[in-house]
Amino acid sequence: MIKKLIRKILLFIAPLVIIGTAYFFWPRQARLRDFNPAEMAELETGMWRHYYDHQYSSLFRTLYETNRREFHCSPFDSVRLAYYAAKAAEIFQPTRSRAEAQTALPWLQKYYGLIQSSSGEPFDVGKAARLELDWWQLRRENANTDQYGDVIAMGSVEVYGVTNSAIKQAGILRAEMMRYRDDRRDGKMQPDDWAHITQGLTLSYALLKQGIGTKRAQ
């Protein structure tokens, strides 16, 4: 009797496991231009808070949600992208020079390599990774917001294959929100400050979405 019951349970569970596994691993084409600016801003604000609080597991979860919900990656790809990005951030954070910071580059290359293969966007993976690391370092070196905002914009230009003033403005505004946070480090950030950052990032991502359009420039 017990054996029959176990057999029935297994027969019921097995298809669910197969379906769940197929759903998790089934490849999907990432859609990098379909994001919602307000949702992206909320998610990025959360990422900043997790990063500065050294909450890497929370950072991983927010990165996963961004790739899954906003870029429509498969669950499997979203897990890998979140891991690569969180690992790059974790390795970069304690570094103190450009030479040391290069240890984060392989993880950024893995991240952008998977973004490229899952989205079909024909950008230069190495260049995109280097630009990402460059603006991280420029920010740490207290470059002005125009300087590293331009590099943020250059990264978007590389990935999306189009350049215009909206993309540049989006990069600079994103940098300005980073500087806003940096000016209030050491426990000075209040809930209203985080709300201000979310508002600024919403406008930044709205400008980016306007600038990149719906398809790559020919």
Structure description:
The chain has helices spanning 2-25, 37-52, 56-70, 75-92, 98-101, 105-119, 125-140, 145-160, 165-182, 191-212. 75% of the residues lie in helices and 0% in strands. The chain has one domain (2-212). Helix 3 (56-70) packs across helix 4, helix 7 packs antiparallel against helix 8 and helix 9 (165-182) runs antiparallel to helix 10. The longest helix is centred in the N-terminal third of the chain and has 24 residues, at 2-25. The radius of gyration is 20 Å and the shape is globular. By secondary structure, the chain is mostly helical.
* Helical coverage, percent range: over 70%
Quaternary status: single chain
Total helical segments: 10
Q: Give the distance, in angstroms, between the N- and C-terminal Cα atoms.
A: 67 Å
Estimate what percentage of residues fall within beta strands.
under 5%
- Stretches with pLDDT under 50, minimum 5 residues: 14-24
**Overall 3D geometry?**
globular
Determine the mean pLDDT: 89
Number of strands: 0
Number of domains: 1
Structural class: mainly alpha
In this structure, how is the largest beta sheet organized? Answer: none
Please give the radius of gyration in angstroms: 20 Å
Along the chain, the helix and strand elements come as HHHHHHHHHH
